[in-house]
Amino acid sequence: MYNALIIGAGQIAGGFDTLTDNYILTHAHAYMKNENINLLGFYDVNFEKSKQMAKKWNTNAFETLDNIKNVDIVSVCVPDEYHVKTTLEISKLNPKIIFLEKPICRDIQDINVLKHIDIPILVNYSRRFSNDFQKLSKRIKKNEFGEYQSGNAFYGKGFIHNGSHMIDLLNLLIGKIGEVQFFDFVEDFYKDDVTKSAIIKFAKGKTLTLNGCNCQNYTIFEFDLIFEKARIKMLNSGFDIEIYEIVENSKFNGYKTLNLKEQIKTDLNFAMKNAIDNIINYLEHKQKLNCTLKNGYEAIMYG
User: What single-letter DSSP state applies at residue 287?
Assistant: First the structure.
C-alpha cells in the first residue's frame, strides 16, 4: 500500500468530480479508486480549502507539512507559478515519486531547479495517459496514414498553461518540432501568459498553424491533421477523434474525396486513473513513465 498526499485543494485536486461519478477527472478520485493507494489527505496554504476538500473525500486536512511522514506519492496541484517552489518543498518529504500538474514551470530557466531534484517526476499532460491517443500515436508512427502534410489546431487560456498541452500532443503524434514562429496573441486569461498564435515547423519540414482563441468566448481544444492517406480530427477537447479515409468521388469520375471511417470516443475521462496506474506500475515493475520531466520541458521550451 502506497501513501499519497495532495498539495493544493482546487478543481484538479478534487473539485471536478465526486466519488460516485462514473468518470475520474481528479487526483483525489484516482487515488481513492486505486486499491494500492491510501490517500493521506490534502495540504493547501488556505487551510479552510483543505478542510472542505478533505470533508468531500473523507480524508484528512493538514495545516502544515511538518509532521507528515511516510509519504510515497505526492500530487502537486497548486497554481502554475508555484509549481517549482512547491515541488522543492515537498521533495523534503522524500516521496518515491512526484505527480506534477502541467506546466512544469512558468519560467523555462526553472527547469534547472527541477532537474536537480533527485526524485522521479511524472507530468500531467493528460492525453499521454489516454490509451486511445497512445494507440493513435503508434498508428501514425507505423505510417498507416502516410506522411503528415499540414494541419490546424485551436486552443485558448495561455500558451504555457494550455498551449503546452497542444505542443506536447503534437510532439507525441507528429514528432519533433523544429521551430515556432509567433504571429498574433490575445490576452484572454493570464496577463503573464498570453494566448499566442504560431506557425509550427516540424523537423521534417512540414507545418501546422496553431490558432490562439479567446477562452472568454468559449473553451476549444481541437486539431485537424492532414496526412497522405487520411485526415484526423480531434474534437471536444480530445474526447472524440474522427478518422477520414480516401474514397472515389461518387459524382465526379477520377476525383478522390474523404469519407468518415472511424469515430472514436476516447478514454480521456479515465486519463487520471491511467496516470495513477502508470505510477503504480513504475513503482512496482519499473514501467516507463508516460510523461517525464523531459516531456514537460519540451512542451514549454518555445514559450
Answer: P
DSSP letter, residue 15: I
Say whether 68 sits in a helix, a strand or coil. Answer: coil
Residues 6+ apart with CB under 8 A from 216: 188, 189
Q: Helix (H, G, I), strand (E, B), or coil: what is residue 208? A: strand
C-alpha distances out from residue 6 to 27, 55, 168, Å:
8, 14, 24
Predicted structure pTM score: 0.96
Under the banding of pLDDT at 50, 70 and 90, the label for residue 285 is very high
Amino acid at 218: Y
The string of pLDDT tens digits covering residues 72-98 is 999 999 999 999 999 999 999 999 999
Mean pLDDT along residues 190-197 = 96
Looking from the CA of 282 toward its CB, the CA atoms found within 13 Å total 21
E strands, 114-221, where? Answer: 121-124, 148-155, 177-190, 193-202, 207-212
- DSSP state, residue 88: H
